Amino acid sequence: MPQTFRDAKCYRSMLFVPGDKLDWMLKAPKYGADALMFDLEDAVEVTRKPAARNAVATAIKELRTGSFGRFVRVNGWRTGHVLDDLNSVVVEGLDGVALPKVEDPEDIAALDRVLGELERSRGLPVGGIEICGAGAETAVAMYKLYDVCMASQRIKRAGDACGPTPGGDAALSLGLNDATEEGIYFGAYSVLQARAAGIVHIGGSMTAQLDDLDLVRRLAQKSKRMGATWAMAIHPSHIPIINEVFSPSQAEVNEAREIISAFAEGVARGEGAIRYKSKLLDYANARAAMDVLKAARAAGMDVGTVPPFEIPAY
């Protein structure tokens, strides 16, 4: 059976914003992130969670017309908070939710069902709210990532291309809290599982170091080489770097356009493989070139004139 790929809006960057700070959420769009993640979990002290839910709902409503994505990290199952979180934030303008501390596919399946009920009861498009599955946080979740991703077609983004970075829950779960490079092995495994589940929007690894912008760039570049297409950030200063790294260069756009043009001409002649600059091009190269142009358009770049060209399904 041909693999089904889960397409969704392209984001290069996603900025975490504490859910108990309404003024921060309302001004967050000015930092240029393609999506915002309002955090109701780790960033909010327990007694402030009820007020934070109301603040997040207000922010989503006031920002609902923005071109950026609006996501919420809710609290995990077994905390006693997740249903209250969802009841508050599932409103018009919400694009997706992230569920922390996922351990089993059942955690995602349960979230999928609750979201569906809330969408139906509130007149929202059923299935329209994503579940953001990026970044498994425990060894169990990393081991089961494929099954977790297959638990709901709402999951469009997952993986942690360079693996756990020191200081986070995932690194602690694996005993890697003093390691700097070893996490890449686990990252590669997460990319494999996410892609096998049909997910093409692969998350890059995130650093908790606020002021080390060189580290942000190195980590984003390495993540991209490992297959990532986007990354999260916890500080606004990281966003321009992440956007730059995950945007195609003008040279890449020009090359992709030329490949599509040359291959379209070859197909018109009845050829499925052509010579181009001492290389052999086939449909796989054409698909890769189309992905570059799609990412460029999503980043607001002018890709020039591209001939209409249909690529067969895998």
From TrEMBL:
Residues 12-236 form the HpcH/HpaI aldolase/citrate lyase domain. Keywords: Lyase, Magnesium, Metal-binding. InterPro entries: Aldolase/citrate-lyase_domain, Citrate_lyase_beta/mcl1/mcl2, Pyrv/PenolPyrv_kinase-like_dom, Pyrv_kinase-like_dom_sf. Pfam families: HpcH_HpaI. Substrate binds at residues 73, 137. The keyword Transport does not apply. Its cofactor is Mg(2+). GO terms for biological process: oxaloacetate metabolic process. It comes from the Bacteria. Mg(2+) binds at residues 137, 169. One of its GO terms (molecular function) is magnesium ion binding. Belongs to the HpcH/HpaI aldolase family. PANTHER family: HPCH_HPAI ALDOLASE_CITRATE LYASE DOMAIN-CONTAINING PROTEIN, LYASE BETA SUBUNIT, PUTATIVE (AFU_ORTHOLOGUE AFUA_4G13030)-RELATED. This is Citrate lyase subunit beta / citryl-CoA lyase.
